[in-house]
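Changelog excerpt

This revision adds worked examples to the README so contributors can see how folded entries look when concatenated. The first example is reproduced verbatim below.
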Amino acid sequence: MHASSPGRRAVLAGTAAAAALATLPVSPGRAEAAAPAADRYRWRNAVQGGTGFITGVLFHPSVRGLAYARTDIGGAYRWDDRTGRWIPLTDHIGWDDWNLLGVEAMAVDPAHPDRLYLALGTYAQPWAGNGAVLRSQDRGATWKRTDLTVKLGANEDGRGCGERLLVDPRDSDTLWLGTRHDGLLKSTDRGAHWQPAAFPATPGATGQGVTLLVAAGRAVYAGWGDSDGTAGRANLYRTTDGTTWEAVPGQPSGAAARVPVRAAYDRHARELYVTYADAPGPNGQSDGSVHKLRTTDGKWTEVTPVRPGGATPDGGTDSFGYGGCAVDARRPGTVVVSTNNRWSLVDTLYRTTDGGRTWTSLKEGAVLDVSETPYLKWGGDEPKFGWWIQAVALDPFDSRNLVYGTGATLYGTRDLRHWAPRVSGLEEASVRQLLSPPAGRAHLISGCGDIGVMYHERLTASPSRGMASDPVFGTATGLALAAARPGYVVRAGWGENGNGAWSDDGGRTWAPFGSQPDMARSAPGPIAAGADGSVLLWSFGPAHPGYRSADNGATWTEIPTFPKGAVPVADPVDPDRFHAFDTTTGTLFASTDGGRTFTAGASGLSSGDGEFQLTAAPGRSGDLWLSLKGDGLHRSTDGGASFAKVGSCQAAYTLGFGKAAAGASYPAVYLVGSVGTITAVYRSDDEARTWTRINDDRHQWGWTGAAITGDPRVYGRVYVATNGRGVQYGEPV
């Protein structure tokens, strides 16, 4: 479980062809302006705690307490040692630049502690935008940006490999950037402009290219992931003059050393440690090794802690690769490496204090305290030591301050035995659904990728009950409550022991559906509950009809007239009324017999638009709002028989409702869309006649089109779903 992220913007099969490197123009750097919002709001995360893949952690070698973290889809962070919190650094990235919220690599300058560099670009696919480099002179408080003409892949295979960005150890003005399809780039003006560097390796089809850059004294080493690992096929190169690159002589070969994943340099012993695997990871690795190179004489030594391939207690094979690699800056010969993709025996960290002659696994004696983030038990009794461990970092000022990233959190220790999440302030959930109940203890229930559904008793602490269980979901696909019976909530998603559940206490506890349609196992989709909770409708994608249950999911009946793939929406007042928008034909369908049959209503609406949302206004029967990416916002007050376009809105992605303003008779309307030319978060207190922008240029969070809702009990409070920065909630100040 949690070995992949099926709900995130999925990486398409195949890779882009290598781009020509004859010329590589870049856009000049530009300052990121911070414009004030039209209405002042304070924005914070609804705390979940981590929840995503930490792909890199970097302690600054010259400043005690200064560290940075990168994520695959959720931006970069700076550690504030005074408060013990991570500070987000890339929330200013806006809707049009959503592809830049994935951080491919980061770099610091040992000689200039305030300088920070980020290489951004989530996908290297043809449909994604090009990458960019951000550079800061104040540790990420402000940025200048250079747009590249190449693509980066922070959420693709190999995203947990070493830093592909490096300040040259000879010259702080010179930077190196390794790409996946376009070789090695070089900047001589601190990242403002980039040109291709002469590099002997030829990009291949795997989409890995340069997997790591590391300084060893005055030399720079580069890992190469497009080699097949056979003898004579180099995958590790170096330059000693900053101009010419050569294959490192004597380097290991074979399947166990096919991809250099991470590397770290012991400056006292003058030895470079390299972890290898037969695939870049984080998935798909079955073999690996660890080697060290003595840079003074070029001697290679294999120091693999445990060779993959042994037997497991259940009769299987102990297959895995090696991932993270960190050296102790204060103690020569002290190194920590991680296994990766070791599902049967569970991944671990190995530590040596004698240069790799002997190793100790840190997992067996580990005491894990996840009281700060209970979801890490995944509905069980105990947390797991980790998976997807490719980011490992040692504090250069404290040999016992060790951290490692997983697919869901960042663990840290200060005694090599007791471990706890170190994720305060770091939120990376990809959020799909939001509910704010009109009554009950929780003001928020969220549905997310990878971590299912959470019941938020407090917005300032990770939910005490962790992930919703009975059953546990990896990714939530549907979440709904009965408007006239708000304690009744249903959810759907990807689960190993069932794909749907219901709750009669507002989402605190759950009971699995007694049965489910066959397609729920392969295509669980959105779900709706009638106004009084007596009827459930469940959809399963464009190839399947919808299904109906009138007994809490004990039995299900096919609805032949329900438009395939549509999202069912319940009327909040009339328990017999449901609606569904058929995007393939641009037609609104309605049911007035409790979901048994559906008939066509308004037609001629935008069709073929995969990004749409149909929302029913609370407390009103037949009051529907249709958000269409390509055709703005439409409203019906006759149950979908007809729609009128809302002229104040040029583009609409998601819409929700909250408590009405003082003196207003209609709920506040919240929108992620475009009013004029700016895609932003808006509020209307007059039924969408006028809008007020409520976020600002510093709080944009990339793509925010999945869900938005106001709080029905607190005027002005709004919850926004992000694709990588968790649930953001704002309140007027």
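The second example, added in the same revision:
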Amino acid sequence: MPRLISATYHPNIEVAEFICEDGRHLLRSGGTLPWRINNPGDLTARKVAGVPEPRKAKGYIGFATTRSGRIFLIFPDEGAGREELKANLKRLHGDRTISEAVPVYAPKKENDTEKYIRDLLKTSGIPAGRKIGECSDAELEKIVNSIAEIEGYHANADTRKETWVAVSRINATDGSQPLPGTEIILQRGDREEVVKSDAAGRFPPVIHPADKSTVHVKVMDPKSKEAVSVGAIQGDLGKDFNLLAKFKRWKGVAGSEKINSSTHGQRKPMSYVVQPGDSLWKIAQLYRTSVEAIRDDNELERDRIYPGEVLLIAGSGKTKPDPRPSTAPSTTATATAKPPTASATANPAAPSRPRVVFPPPPPVPSGIRSSDSERSKEGEGKVLALINPVPGRAPWMSVAIAEAKTRYGKREEVLEAEIDYHVEIGDGSKLLSQRAWCAAFANWCLLKAGYPVDNVGFRERRATLGRAHGFYEIDEGRKIRNPLFVEMDKPIYGAIAVATRRNGHGYHVGFAYGKAGGKNLILLGGNQDDRIKFSPFNMDAERVVEVVEKSGRRNKKTIKSKSYLKYFVPVSYYEQAKRDLASPGLESLDVDALNKIIGVPPEKKGEKSEPRTN
């Protein structure tokens, strides 16, 4: 049987979907859940913050989330499931007898524990006083056989069904994030079926008809209230489609072989910008690959990822594609060697230099990029528009992260020989070591991401590009509010955060990245300790302190902070910024750990870096 490389589960229709290395799909329905997912022991996945992260489990190729919310491991075949069950029993229950192990393995809230113990002892024939770790291989096989029987692996055999098919998947998106709860209509001949997208914006898999007839995809037109065809699924090859909704109007179904497709050979690589709240598991589920594949393709040593990183999502082939573009951006590194191992590093205590990943190209305002695919005005029988993945929240952040990794903690006197952000944006200044460059760096990142930063026609517009206060006001003689940026009441990921003094004047600027402690915001910025790095800044204009009066009484007093933060976003990003407020918020992160990634050593105790003001 061809090797199955990944799998997912569709609880709404109780179907396990496996993807074969040759591109075909195997659908398993009927029987029982343990059989459908090749999991004889009903092994569940350990969860961290609600995300499955099995520490030591091996051999699984996916996760099955049931209607009740439980998450089980999916194995490629029964043998792999049995091997992990045996390993699990030895690893976690080796020092226990069956009577001691079952309450932990099959807790009372989900099982009749006493009956489970009686049945397992009876069917396995293992003495009640023998520890599982003392059992021979033959006895362990008996325990596994008994658990599989008790868990129902062999039940309902007459209802089992395995089908090799071409399968297409449809995902609902607004161009930057998935749309849950969206309804579409699938028409097969004269029969129509309404289906709804799940929390990840995915619809149930569409199985290609055996007679090779066409499945028409329709949506309800918001004006006419009639079903309108936006594309079709047909042929022997399955594909993934993105259904783009823009301003509440459906633009069309779009086929993208860059995500999964049921074609032979290796999938084309694509870049994905890590968003706040992402994990490798979530990304693997979205693009129907595995955590291991993403980790290998990006040479990750651990599963922790950070917002703004760019990951390469590649196919299942053995050859890793080159992530470098044919024409490298002039201001970023063109290549980096693989980070040296600790044994090969001159200073073992120094962190190894991480890989450099190129930022994606500037965003296209509509969220749709050009395509070679055919387009149909009538929307009948043809794909309408190819929608390639575009950067998600705050696209300029991937530029800033890539630049921070490229410069790897170099101080300004070294950095200015490689790149001068003043010169790059044309603010009229030169040399980073002679003039504050935090605003120049922020404007450079925005410019590289495709956002305008120059207020053509305004007096002192060039000098404003180099001023932190310029994101708020330009041409300070008349106090004109900068029309290119909108102020936000709260910080969001990627917000342009202006450190502001009590008198209202902004003296430093960086990008909001995460939280550090209760009242501090982590900013990624230039000219922080004379380099590009992560630094904590106080957020609030006022703070409450406890004071002791002469009488000895303790009272709380509100005082004004010496400085606080204001938040801005580009005007063209404002609508998305309002949606970002409801998205996964800013994470609590360790500043030293973040700086280690970009080559900046931790600050010494009692040492606090202060940016040069402008």
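Reviewer comment on example two: Residues 376 and 384 are 6 Å apart (CA to CA). Confidence is low (pLDDT under 50) at residues 246-267, 315-391.
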